[in-house]
Amino acid sequence: xxxxxxxxxxxxxxxxxxxxxxxxxxxxxxxxxxxxxxxxxxxxxxxxxxxxxxxxxxxxxxxxxxxxxxxxxxxxxxxxxxxxxxxxxxxxxxxxxxxxxxxxxxxxxxxxxxxxxxxxxxxxxxxxxxxxxxxxxxxxxxxxxxxxxxxxxxxxxxxxxxxxxxxxxxxxxxxxxxxxxxxxxxxxxxxxxxxxxxxxxxxxxxxxxxxxxxxxxxx
Length: 219
Known about the structure:
By secondary structure, this protein is of the alpha+beta class. It folds into 2 domains: 11-105, 434 Repressor (Amino-terminal Domain) (Orthogonal Bundle); 117-216, Jelly Rolls. Helix content is 26%, strand content 26%. The chain is built from 6 helices and 10 strands; from the N terminus they run H-H-H-H-H-H-E-E-E-E-E-E-E-E-E-E. The protein has helices at residues 17-24, 36-51, 56-63, 67-74, 82-92, 96-100, and strands spanning 120-123, 127-131, 141-148, 153-156, 164-171, 174-178, 181-185, 190-194, 199-203, 209-216. The strands form 2 sheets. It has a 6-stranded antiparallel β-sheet with strand order 1-2-3-10-5-8, with no helix packed on it. The protein has a 4-stranded antiparallel β-sheet with strand order 4-9-6-7, with no helix packed on it. A hairpin with a 2-residue loop joins strand 6 (174-178) and strand 7.
């Protein structure tokens, strides 16, 4: 599972980003040190950016907010306008309320709706990846639903050292590769493998492959 870079969110918006960059600066102001609202926002933007494996440049392209402004927000040195906050939230596929919400104040049960488009990490003719773990939580475990069409494969480069993945086949058949090792999987099978080397999940059958992926990080 290649989670460190967003799947092309920024590319479609790069051409229009400079005009928005020019408009945003006059409508932001420096926040007072220790402002609780700014602290929550800066932590949420940083956490979500790392979660999506965005660089500041990629988030700037996806949101239309300049890199320098994003850097100030993450350091708690700027209080963005509603419009700027909205564009950042849209880049992450969430609402403003979800962006500024303090996770520590949330309910003890959180539902992730199956039809929530904000949880769809990738969706095309070959592959669908849906995030099943809450985006706003900083955690060492991630959970995904993956659907691969016949002949499709999900290839990922090495993640951080110590990262491991567990992939369970719900329907169809798969072949998982990690480094030079390969393992066929039938429905109901689970593979546990290193993800700090190049790795691939491939649909090896004639029917769509549906499975569930758990990614665990250490350190």
